[in-house]
Amino acid sequence: MAGKQQGSREGIEKYFFSIKKGVSKDWKDLADCLDLWDEVDNIESKTSNRDDESRCRDLLAVWKTRKGDAATMEVLMEALLKARLQSVVDGLREEFPDLREPQSSSSSSSQPLTSRGKDASEIRLTKAGTDRAATADVNEYFDEVIKEVSHKWDDLARKLGFNENEIIGIEVLKRDTNRRCREMLHRWRNREGREATPQVLKQALIDIGQKLTADSLFV
């Protein structure tokens, strides 16, 4: 019964205070993993959002409103893991015992969710097949591209049509290679629209000497 309560919309806000405290400056990473990158500019522009915690709280409210009944704690916990915010997940389980119950059949409460998130990613990225790659939203591949290629993000940017001024702008805006790569990929997708396809991204990876990564992602 506790698991059911966790999965419903009712009462989900009780977790938001702890989540915003833990996520804080990494709220944009969470936004990306919740498929809400398109809301980032809007959230940042609000004068009422004076710091990262308030922006994160606004993000969670937008997510809950947009997703409706699909806005469950299970989805949110998996998004936190995907954003590499394991410490936030651990803190939530420590503070709210009810969050441990769906995974309580295992000796380790964190392992099933972590494994499930990893398996889902691997299935989506490496076993999807040619037909799916042709129709997939290219942003579904971004996490693995960032993981494998962020150290060459500027080379990838050039292959995707960014000029030197745009690359410098991203370098100034973002403090590390992972965030620079993510920012660049989202700008490319938003700029190119339907032309930003998995096939184009795969060819760009091959062109910068990342054929192994390209082949592993786009089977």
TrEMBL record:
Gene3D superfamilies in the cross-refs: Death Domain, Fas
Gene Ontology annotations of biological process type: signal transduction
CDD domains for the chain: Death
Domain named Death: residues: 12-96, 152-219
Pfam families noted in UniProt: Death
Highest taxon of source: Eukaryota
Listed SMART domains: DEATH
Matches recorded under InterPro entries: DEATH-like_dom_sf (IPR011029), Death_dom (IPR000488), FADD (IPR016729)
Biased composition (Basic and acidic residues): 116-125
Annotated segments matching region Disordered: 96-127
Name of the molecule in the record: Hypp9010 protein
